[in-house]
Amino acid sequence: MIRILLALLLLAPVQEQPLPDRTSFLIEFQVKRPGLLKAFGATTNWALSGQYTYTETVTETTLDSKGSPKHSKTSVFEIIPTRHLGFAYRRQTVKDGVPLTQKELEKQDRKQDAEDRKLDQEIQKAVAEAKARQKANPNPTPPPQRPRAKLEDSYILMAADFQLVRREVIDGHPVIVLTFKPNLAHKPVNEIAKMLQHASGQAWVSETDYELVKLDAEVFEPISFGMGLLAKIQPGSRGLFEWRKFNDEIWLPVRDDFTARARILLVKGMNFREVHEYSNHRKYVVDVDVQFESPAEK
Fold first, then answer.
1. DSSP label at residue 35
2. Which of 98, 93, 14, 85 is nearest to 49 (CA)?
3. How far apart are CA 25 and CA 36, in angstroms?
4. Are the C-beta atoms of 144 and 138 separated by less than 8 Å?
5. pTM score, two decimals?
6. Is residue 285 within 8 Å of 61, Cβ to Cβ?
């Protein structure tokens, strides 16, 4: 009898843990990790991201009206941290499938070096201005303490109706799956929020880190840029973005896949697919000031 009871207990389905409270989860997502911005190029940990380098392979494919590939080209970039926190050097090594020559690489390096020096000057100027202000007013009034964030404070999260639907596990990490569709009662005030009002899809968010693990969005009505005069993204365009956690400390991109139907300048129609694959993630701590020689010095 005891064996039968044990067998029944083992075979009985485990009761699934209730999903988190929707509002509380979205507030924590907003406060701890503004992850939605990552799909548009932002990151959430500048200090750690400045310690990592990786390879980015970009494949651009032109599609016909039926979505079949017509022409493809591939480029490869090295993402290299610089001495300026939050700024990376995107060094191209392959263009249209052809490796760049040493001369072309050196030209890139010199341009990057010039940009770094210009940024150095801007930082030094900002520091000097801050010191001057502090000297002129050594006891400034402290800024008021920010109140606890509320969901309505986030223009991004309020632009869409997010619903928590289920749990999943991705690469060993527990995630909460959210669906989203436009919140028609909200009036967007920035470009990202405006774009969300024309798209729907799903987001996979780490339950422990509040980081985006995956985002799948599809455009269901046109998105216009420049009052529709510059470009218009047509319905059916879709983007899939994925991140993974490295060294148990930082989430970095592993794949972006975007397929779009667009019209440029009201005339030229474009159907294309662009895939960004990120690989060879590794630590890269910058502790030296690398200088590139000019051709004259050589």
1. G
2. 85
3. 14
4. no
5. 0.79
6. no
Asked whether the beta carbons of 81 and 88 are under 8 A apart, the reply is yes
Length of the chain: 298
**What are the tokens at 112?**
């990057």
Choose among 183, 246, 191, 237: nearest CA to 213.
246
Helix (H) or strand (E) holding 123: helix 102-136
Of 136, 145, 170, nearest in space to 244 by CA: 170
What Å distances lie between residue 15 and 9, 12, 165, 227, CA to CA?
12, 9, 16, 51
Residue 10, Cβ neighbours under 10 Å: how many? 7
Place of tokens 């050594």: 138
Query: 118-150: per-residue pLDDT in tens?
Result: 999 998 999 998 888 888 888 777 777 666 666
Q: Which of 180, 214, 179, 177 is nearest to 198 (CA)?
A: 180
Under 8 Å CB-to-CB from 94, ≥6 apart: which residues? 74, 75, 76, 100
- Tokens 């939050």 map to which residue? 86
d(CA 23, CA 37): 19
User: What residues does 73 pair with on adjacent strands?
Assistant: 60
CA distance 138 to 275: 52
